[in-house]
Design goal:
mainly alpha, globular, about 0% strand
Length: about 210
């Protein structure tokens, strides 16, 4: 006699607010250092950036990404996971610059980090195109992220580093401000079950398949 099969459905909340909050906060702290509002001497300028980079910039976004994968939210899963891994890599770069992983070897080339920025820029352009059909707020954040990656790459390659470092600093600050708005809007809209703060409608330029 066959046994009855029972299924348990696990309902998971939308993790977008958590992931975007992680992005907003780490960009706020990082931009404060780039703009000279906070900081220290030499490599020590990034010492206290590391906890926020690891836990908020990286783990919060990766955690939110894993939930989105389970919920079938392809855009959120890939976008949050991609940028979560980026901040983890940045944390390791800063740890290396602080010699926490041992003495820095002679002949290191910071342009390798610039190449990584270019790689992220290329993929972020694709994410920005998808964000057009998510909402206008996310599209604006992705557009600024692309400006940030380009500016960071140019500064890493030694192309007018003062100019591009300043552009990166202000861009990162604006990403943070928009991120806080997107985080708050997503949280309130989900909590109240209606639109309290608008994120802007999809642009409707690219038609999705059935």
């Amino acid at each position: 006699m066959s046994q009855p099969v029972s299924e348990t459905k696990i309902s998971m909340s939308d993790p977008t607010a958590l992931g975007v909050f992680g992005l907003a906060l780490v960009c706020l702290v990082a931009s404060s250092q780039k703009l000279g509002l906070t900081g220290g001497e030499g490599a020590g300028k990034v010492t206290f950036l590391l906890p926020w980079t690891v836990f908020l910039g990286s783990l919060a976004q990766i955690w939110a990404s894993s939930i989105d994968f389970k919920k079938g939210n392809y855009f959120g899963a890939v976008a949050l996971g991609t940028y979560g891994l980026f901040w983890m890599a940045m944390a390791f770069n800063w740890a290396i610059s602080l010699e926490w992983l041992g003495p820095i070897q002679l002949g290191t080339d910071p342009r390798q980090v610039g190449v990584a920025f270019i790689g992220y820029l290329v993929f972020s352009i694709f994410i920005m195109i998808a964000a057009m059909e998510a909402n206008k707020c996310f599209f604006a954040i992705l557009a600024l992220i692309n400006v940030l990656f380009f500016s960071l790459a140019m500064a890493s390659f030694g192309v007018n580093p003062t100019l591009f470092s300043n552009i990166a600093a202000w861009t990162e600050l604006f990403i943070s401000l928009l991120g806080f708005y997107a985080c708050g809007a997503n949280f309130l809209n989900n909590f109240f079950g209606r639109t309290v703060l608008s994120l802007g409608k999809p642009m409707g330029w690219i038609r999705k398949g059935a």
